[in-house]
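Morning!

This is the sequence you dropped in the shared folder:
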Amino acid sequence: MRDGFFRAAAVTPEIRVADPVFNAERICERIEEGERLGVGLMVFPELCVTGYTCGDLFFQAPLIKAAREQLSKIAAYTREKSMLVFVGLPWEHGGKLYNAAAAICSGQVLGIVPKTHLPNYSEFYEARHFAPGTDELILTEWEGMQVPMCTDLLFQCREIRELVVGAEICEDVWAPCPPSIRHALAGATVIVNCSASDETVGKDSYRNALISGQSARLMCGYVYANAGEGESTQDLVFGGHNIIAENGTMLAVSKRFSPESIYGDLDLERLESERRRTNTYPARQEDGHLVIKFSLDSARMEACQQKKLFRFMDSRPFVPGDVKERSRRCEEIFTIQAMGLKKRLQHTGCTHAVLGISGGLDSTLALLVTARAFDMLGIAREQIHAVTMPCFGTTDRTYQNACRMAGKMGASLSEVDIKRSVLQHFADIGHDPDDRNVTYENAQARERTQVLMDIANQVNGLVVGTGDMSELALGWATYNGDHMSMYGVNASVPKTLVRHLVRYCADTCGEETLKAVLLDVLDTPVSPELLPPQDGAISQKTEDLVGPYELHDFFLYHMLRFGYMPSKIYRMAVRAFAGEYEGETIRKWLEVFYRRFFAQQFKRSCLPDGPKVGSVAVSPRGDLRMPSDAARRIWTEDLEKLQEEKTE
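The structure's back. Tokens below.
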């Protein structure tokens, strides 16, 4: 298992009711298929050895005997396989019959998990045939051995310490207090469910929400295998609705009404990270669960993962891929930003706002947010003071866009040409204007901030900051320059999302001239415009200097959200950006990311206030309590291993 990914499968084999021989053959075929694909955990439906819809045939000794015999054949078939398998079957013990799931690995039945909650309403009559399972440990006989049987069994992999599996059966997860809660609190990171849930109109949506929600609540992986084709249709139809979920995310969902296997690569490291960082998730509770150890060949699974990963790697984790969801998310974020500013204006008693507009993405979004906040407060937009401050690097394109946009938004536009002030400053400190170093650049940014602050004093207003989270993560801001404001509305919005927020505003503003300006802003290269233009065009392109923001946002998300190692982030990025960036390019900018991230924390340690909009933020008062002088050695050493891997 590499990088914490573990392959699981939820399988619905074609079956025949009351024909364990046929069913076992189909189960073994699916196990063989899973072996070729590197599956480490395979889950089959409830009572799949016999069929769920046997009815009173469960009272027949031949059926019970045949099911046990076929379990022996299935177990023997796993002898040379590296896989933990759960199959459902009727299990007799102490004169009672149980609806159970057998856990099998390497030719052995490791344990029997009986169903706790037996539905006996509507179309279900399970209490007629089965006794409910309990958490009392029973030793049941199988092929001359004593096998543990109870609801509270956990199965832990020796080679993969993060892999701890608990099981429940169908109705168990629909109950008010499912067994999976106890399993997760006792340390289970993956829950399996052998199910036979019939199809009725709309039930699939409820089932999706139920399994997704349970995986989110327990911060676990959830593998749900449902009965399907071959079950009796005398009164019911089973659709084979299989689900693999992880902490609220659906990794794989089957097509219904066909015997389909689904595969998903669970990220066990991600689950552990979520549980560590969420202090309301309790520490592992030793509550009487019996933990059964098993072994898997993790090298085999890793080799299969190298060929294909059954997991979507989103190259833009901050931006929803679905257009409808993206629009909904943009509106939500835009409103959060505006609400944050609205409250700050109310609290300070400010009825004026001041912001610098450059014709770039960030200042455009800040102006749009400020206009929304003023509309909420019923304050005239004329009291938004949009200030354009041309200097050595300003191009006509960005200048004209800034002016047109301020006009269309109804803001008061003023222009302060700062060239003379900056040149005077150079003379005061003895700097040669032809030396276009960091002093040349930052002097302009600091002069602009001084202008904005002083205008705010004049009008008794509040300076609205424009810098975004991606810039703050990289330290791509002038300390006490554009780094500073009185309220930073974009402080937790990454650059990739800024672009979509501006696009959303362009699409929904309902004003063609404003839309045209916004679209041209979107088409303009990202630049601080601190160096003179070349032939009238922008000469200083940010992404040529610090790297593509889509890469940095990917790195930032996975580093801060889950605490992944750099090598894992690199390998994920290679998959996510396949066809866009070569591995060497990704590695180059990943090194830049870590170097800048650790070196620039001092800028983030004194950020202005600003609203959090997503699950990742860099506020020193909220999500990122990081010392400004922390060493990056262990992260750098992990990156160096990537070069060693390539050499080998």
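Headline: DSSP finds 21 helices and 20 strands in the chain.

More detail when I'm at my desk.
O.
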